[in-house]
Design goal:
Distance between the termini: 33 Å
Number of strands: 8
CATH topology: Rossmann fold
Number of domains: 1
Shape: globular
Largest sheet: 8 strands, mixed
CATH superfamily: NAD(P)-binding Rossmann-like Domain
Strand order of the largest sheet: 3-2-1-4-5-6-7-8
Structural class: alpha/beta
């Protein structure tokens, strides 16, 4: 296979940045995307200084025009996309929020980033994957999105991740037999801006399963939910 090309959303920091680093260290050409151009360019430059093949492309995942621009860029400049890591996500539920009082505005904003964006980006890049008979889509979900043991708290975030898991299963079914494998993963509680300083995992471990799924062999799983490279309950 030619050198694989990956798109990583939300790649300027945290787990997304580490996914970019680990993929590039394994010989993948990485398109690091981020909403903030200055931060994204600095992130890509720091990885380039490590000798890694990473380039930056601006992408606000809530803006359809920028999503379309990314898809056009991948078609025009690379004519392929082998890996898509839908990492960009937000958690904006107020502290102590309950499903009994979550606002529709919080729900809409959360779903726009955590669900609609992965849907639109995947829809746009799957045709490029089909052209070459090979593709990997990795959706960064959360244990908070597991129906198994579902509770109250962070309702918008939880619901968005449940929906993202459903999207994973639907894309896996729709692309079955095409050489495209689609999976969700939970990184665990990771020390990031979202996870906070008291989280139990570093970004290296948080990114590992995403990278593993991005580099699955052709006979690898599709339509699964994983943590630490092991399947977990939906």
């Amino acid at each position: 296979m030619a050198t694989r090309i990956a798109v990583v959303t939300g790649g300027s920091r945290g787990i997304g940045f580490e996914v970019c680093r680990q993929l590039a260290r394994k010989g993948v050409d990485v398109v690091l995307t981020a909403r903030d151009p200055d931060r994204g360019q600095r992130a890509a430059a720091s990885l380039q200084r490590e000798g890694l093949n990473v380039i930056f492309h601006a992408l606000d995942v809530t803006r359809a025009q920028q999503i379309n621009g990314l898809i056009d860029y991948m078609k025009r400049s690379h004519a392929r996309c082998d890996i898509l890591v839908n990492n960009a996500g937000i958690l904006i539920d107020r502290r102590g929020a309950s499903v009994l009082d979550v606002s529709i505005e919080t729900m809409r904003s959360t779903l726009e980033t955590n669900l609609y964006a992965p849907l639109q980006i995947s829809q746009g890049l799957v045709p490029l994957m089909r052209e070459h008979g090979h593709g990997r889509i990795v959706n960064l979900s959360s244990g908070l999105g597991q129906l198994d043991g579902m509770g109250d708290g962070t309702p918008a975030y939880r619901i968005s991740k449940v929906a993202l898991n459903a999207l994973t299963l639907m894309f896996a079914t729709a692309t079955k037999g095409s050489g495209i494998l689609v999976n969700s993963m939970c990184p665990g509680w990771v020390r990031t801006a979202m996870g906070g300083p008291n989280a139990t995992r570093g970004v290296e471990r948080g990114a590992e399963t995403a990278v593993w799924l991005a580099l699955l062999p052709d006979d690898g799983p599709t339509g699964g939910f994983f943590r630490d490279r092991q399947p977990i309950a939906w």
